[in-house]
Amino acid sequence: MDENTNLTEKKRDLFSRVFEWAELFALYFAIGMIIILACFRHSPVEGSSMYPTLNENDVLIVSRLYFTPKCGDIIICQSPVYGLERPLVKRVIAVAGQTVEIDYDNWTVTVDGTVLDESYINRESGRGMLRSDYLEDTFTVPQGCVFVMGDNRNHSNDSRFSEIGMIDERYILGKVCVKIYPIGDFSFF
User: Fold this and answer.
1) How far apart are CA 112 and CA 98, in angstroms?
2) Is the dihedral of CA 90, 94, 100, 102 positive or negative?
3) 182 and 119 in one domain?
4) Helix, strand, coil shares, percent, the chain, to 5
5) Cα angle: 187, vertex 188, 189; to 5 degrees
6) What is the distance between the terminal CA atoms of the chain, rounded to a whole angstrom?
7) Looking at the annotation, which residues are catalytic?
8) Distances from the Cα of 108 to the Cα of 101, 113, 137, 139, 152, angstroms
9) Quick one: 34 and 56 in the same domain?
């Protein structure tokens, strides 16, 4: 009888330990998910404006933690004029106080007198870059705003156009950190 009692106690002790570990795992998992959801979000790419860097239906992880936008960052943003329900994926070209000059015929963008190295853009040979609907080709970025463009310049609605305009930093939803889908094309930004 002592042997049966001892065996029952061991089973009860093992079950208790497994249950404690499961509770601990569930607690840490829940805390981790809360942190991830508070700091990050996922966002699918809609459209071809960021081709060849990003393709339609790519899924991105976006950091919602405070960051200061800088030239070259890929961000998710909104434009009140375009519609707040439609997030945009764009590349930051210039920040507050900087001057952007665009040479549409030669596909060059100059920021504060320096031509950007934009090997990532989709140039269409034999065609110039899609022209702005503003009258000028030079833009000075106001305080609290960024100038954004898509990498697929002839198929991107961006700061060159009045429908989007300069993006107020308050409408930046986050910085793209990782492309997670398609899985074979996983990459960090």
Assistant:
1) 6
2) negative
3) yes
4) 25, 30, 45
5) 125
6) 66
7) 49, 90
8) 8, 12, 11, 14, 13
9) no
- Residue 126: give the domain boundaries: 45-188
Q: Which residue from 113, 130, 112 is spatially nearest to 121, judged by alpha carbons?
A: 130
| Pair 153, 122: CB distance under 8 Å | yes
Tally of structural domains, the chain? 2
Claim to verify: residue 68 and residue 114 sit in the same structural domain: yes
Question: 166 by DSSP, 3-state: which?
Answer: coil
Per-position b or e across 147-176, b if 16+ CB within 10 A of its CB: bbbbbbbeebbbbbbeebbbbebebbebbb
Q: Look up the CATH number of the domain holding residue 117.
A: 2.10.109.10
Regarding whether 30 and 55 lie in a shared domain, the answer is: no
Residue pLDDT tens, the chain, 189 long: 566 667 677 777 777 787 788 787 887 777 766 666 666 666 777 888 999 999 888 988 888 777 889 999 999 998 888 777 788 999 999 999 999 999 999 999 999 999 999 999 999 888 989 888 887 889 999 999 999 999 999 999 999 998 899 999 999 988 998 888 888 887 778
What pLDDT is recorded for position 83? 76
The pLDDT of residue 109: 95
**Tell me, what's the pLDDT at 181?**
83
Hey, is 54 helix, strand or coil? coil
State whether 9 and 49 are in the same domain: no
